[in-house]
Amino acid sequence: MTTREADGEAGRSRSTDESEQEATGQRQRTAAERFTLAISIILILGLIALVTYVSITGGGEPPIVEARPLPDEIRHEGESYFLPVAVTNRGGQTAAEVTIQAELAGSDGSAETSEFTLDFLAGGETREGTAVFASDPAAGELTVDVASFQAS
Amino acid sequence: MTMVLDRTRSETDSTCPGLERRQRERPKGSWGRELQDILRAISGGFIFATPLLYTMEMWWIGTTAELWKLMLFLAVAALISLALARSRSGGFKEETSRFATLEQAADGVAIGLVGAVVVLTVLNRIQLGDPLDSVLGKVIVQAVPICIGSAVANAIFGRHGGRTLDGDQETGEAQSAREAFTADFGATTIGAIFLAFSIAPTDEVPMLAAELDYGHALALIALSLALTYVIVFVSGFGTGQHEQQGPFQSPVTETVLAYLLSLLVALAALLLFDRIEWGDSLGEIVAMVLVLGLPAAVGGAAGRLVV
After folding, report:
1. Phi, psi at residue A118, to the nearest 5°?
2. What is the pLDDT of residues B69-102, one digit of tens each?
3. How far is CA A45 from the centre of its chain?
């Protein structure tokens, strides 16, 4: 108490307005301050709890990436067929530059390939990409593969 | 204690004639004061952190880096804000007592966390279905600059919200409505240019705009307006600094005008950097202007500090 007073009086040249606040600053903490501090501490503890939970439950395993075409959601626009592909990382770590290759072998022997890349796929995350073909994927034989990814 | 209080009170009354009015307009009571401190912390945090919130590498770091490293980073930020709060010109409260210092560090981290969640949600960087660890990573890494920014809020705004309060008061009263308008207009534009130009040429703008759907666009507008209001409010309303008459001179009008001006600056910046051209689809232009409008608005509102 006294040191703070000395600090406030001697240590600083402040306007009178400020020194009033300095003086009132030595009061008991107000309800408002205790309220915000409590909220802050709850948030920080919550964060620590979440981080602990995540590190205990998940985490260490390297990425396991799977690609699954969604033939029910094919769109046909003009000359092109858009085939959505759901890509899931079942591992714990993030996979980067996930490249998906889709091949379509038509019944007449023609073959088409389509490829797309997802920048990042976090552990447990599912994202969608779209493969584009000129002929109907439902009519031919479709293979969708994960070509490559980088593990961090 | 009581003696000190009495003495300072009487000094206050006699030496500062403008104070009475200032105090009347300022939110009184502990809740009002606490709110103002928190708003000042938010303002400082966003002025400092906005460029980093618009950096895709920051989002990636959140996804790829290990959580304990990010927690360590956040702890360092908390220590920095502890040290700054203890210093004479840092922090966001008026006291520098030990308890107030700890309080500011804790509040700063909490504001950083909440701010990061809000901005990342509005910018569509985190969604409900996302894996928890990548969400946590993104939030923690963005909480760091907001936390540090909140710890320098007093250095930005001055301890009483109004920068160089006493000097400005005289000039403020002497200004005519038109001069006041020109000054505010200029300051907002310059501030908006300051932040918008450093973000406009980057790839984050089209990237964010591409994923901006209707709901997120509305949320973005609301967030931009809210931040503008908070910064405008903190930077001087109710402290007697803005006594001029003029179109910019009520908090709500001022906020709306400052935001519209910031959107214009964002549009101009995007045009100058060739990110948009006449002929692009209207939706794309609107989305990009709104995306860049947030940093422009934060900068524009902060620019008014120099008035």
Report:
1. -105, 130
2. 999 999 999 999 888 888 877 788 877 777 888 8
3. 21
**Angle, CA of B43, B45 and B49, to the nearest 5°:** 120
Residue pairs between chains A and B whose CB atoms are closer than 8 Å: 125
Distance to chain A for B85, nearest Cα, Å: 14
A104 vs A123: CA distance, rounded Å: 29
C-beta atoms of B34 and A55 within 8 A? no
| Count of residues in chain A | 152
For B137, which residue in chain A has the nearest alpha carbon?
A51
Q: What's this model's pTM, rounded to 2 decimal places?
A: 0.75
The C-alpha of B164 sits at a distance from chain A's nearest C-alpha, in angstroms, of: 12
Contact B187, B242 (CB under 8 A): no
Q: Could you give the CA distance from residue B37 to residue A38 in angstroms, rounded to a whole number?
A: 16
Is B67 in contact with A51 (Cβ distance < 8 A)? yes
**Mutation to test the B interface, candidates A1, A47, A149, most B Cβ within 10 Å:** A47
The residue behind tokens 């909220």 is: A39
Cβ of A18 and B131 within 8 Å? no
The β-bridge partners of A76 are: A81
- The 10s digit of each residue's pLDDT in B241-293 is 444 455 556 778 888 988 999 999 999 999 999 988 878 888 889 999 999 99
- Give the contacts of B107 (CB within 8 A, at least 6 positions apart): A36, A37, A40, B38, B41, B92, B150
ipTM value, please give it.
Answer: 0.72
Q: How far apart are CA A4 and CA B97, in angstroms?
A: 7
**Strand-strand pairing, A95-105 and A111-121:** antiparallel
Question: Residue A152's closest chain B neighbor by CA?
Answer: B64
Does the beta-carbon distance from A43 to B114 stay under 8 Å?
yes
- Residue for token digits 């490249």? A99
Kindly list the distances between the CA atom of residue B165 and the CA atoms of B25, B96, B161, B173, B299, in Å, as whole numbers in the listed order.
15, 21, 8, 12, 21
Distance of residue A26 Cα from the nearest chain B Cα, in angstroms? 8
Q: How many CA atoms lie within 13 A of B161 on its CB side?
A: 28
**Cβ–Cβ under 8 Å, residues B82 and B226:** no
